[in-house]
Amino acid sequence: MTVLGPLAPIRLIAVDVDGTLIGRGRTIPTERVGRAVRAAARHGVQVALCSGRPLNSIDLIGQDLGVSGPVIGFDGALVLAADRTVLLRHGVRVAAAIALIDAARSHGVCLEIYRAEGHYVDRLHPESVKHAHLIRVAPTVTDLRRLALSSEDGDIIKAQVIGDGTAAGRARLHELESLGLGLRFGWAAAPPGHAQFDYVNVTDLGVDKGRATAALIAALGLSRDEVMGLGDGPNDAPLLGASGFAVAMGNAGDDLKRRARFVVPHVDDDGAAIAIERFILDHGTRQYADRSEWPGAEQRRDE
C-alpha cells in the first residue's frame, strides 16, 4: 500500500495536548515529541496548542516544547495569535454560569471555573487535586457563585465538570447536561493515567475547537490543506474536521479514527512525533510502500 501525504505543504499544526502530546504517567511531552515539534517550527511551521487547559498551563507546555505559537484555549472559546493578540473570544454569560454553579452544587459534582488569569474551585475535590497535578497549576479556592456575580458576561471563558468515573457519577454529569442550561457539554477523552475520571468542558453553545481552528486559519491567511490537525478525544472531532489533513491518535476512540485521514500510533508510542516526522519534516513528499515501517499506524481508504 502506498501512503500519500498532505495535499499541500503543512504550515500549521493544530494539536491537542492531553492524550496527543502527553501520555500516560507524564506531565510533559517526551523528548522525541519535543524534538519533532521544534524541528517543525524551524521549518517555518506554526504550532498551535489546542486544549481545555487554563492558559498558564498551556504556556508551560509551550515552554516544555521550546516553541511559542498560536493558542486555541478553553476548548475553543479563546484563540490567541503567537503575539497573544486575541483573535476570537467567546465566553459564558454570567446567568448561565450561575445556573451551572447552582446545579453542580445540588448534584454534588466537582466544578472548575476558568477565567483568563486562572481557574477556580469551591473546594479541593479529589478530582480537582488530581487534575491540578496533571496540568501543574493549582486552582484558587473561592466562592464560585460570588466569583460569577462579580464577573461581566464573557469574563468566565469556560467551566469544567469532572466526574468520579463511577456509573452514578457519570449519570450526575448527564443530568447536568440535560438541564437545558444553554451551554455546550464537550466530553473529552480522559488524559492517560486519569481513566477513572470523566472530564467534560462546558462552554457557550457556539464554541468548539473546529470553529476556533477555522478562525485561526483565516487570521493566518492559510488554506485548510495547509493545516494538520491531531487529536484523541471526542471534543477533537471538530478540530479534525476543520483541518485539511486530519490525524487521530492510536488511543483515540473509533468514531474519531473514522473521521481522520490517518491514524498514528498511541500517544505512549510518540504518535504525534511520528506524524510530524513523516508528513512535515519529510515535506509530505516521501511515500511508504510498506505500512510495517510505520508501526501501529493505519491509513483510512475511503475510495
Summarize the structure.
With 303 residues, the protein is an alpha/beta fold.
Strand content: 15-25%
Structural class comes to alpha/beta
Widest sheet: strand ordering? 5-4-3-2-1-12-13-14-15
- What is the oligomer described by this structure? single chain
User: CATH H level of the largest domain: which superfamily?
Assistant: HAD superfamily/HAD-like
Count up the helices.
Answer: 10
Describe the structure.
It is built from ten helices and 15 strands. It is of the alpha/beta class and 303 residues long. The protein folds into two domains: 12-89 and 208-299, 3-Layer(aba) Sandwich (Rossmann fold), CATH 3.40.50.1000; 94-204, Hypothetical Protein, Haloacid Dehalogenase-like Hydrolase, Chain: A, domain 2. It has a nine-stranded mixed beta sheet, sandwiched between helices. Strand 3 (71-73) and strand 4 (78-80) form a beta hairpin. The longest helix is centred in the N-terminal third of the chain and has 14 residues, at 94-107. The radius of gyration is 19 Å and the shape is globular. The chain starts with 11 loop residues before the first strand and ends with a strand.
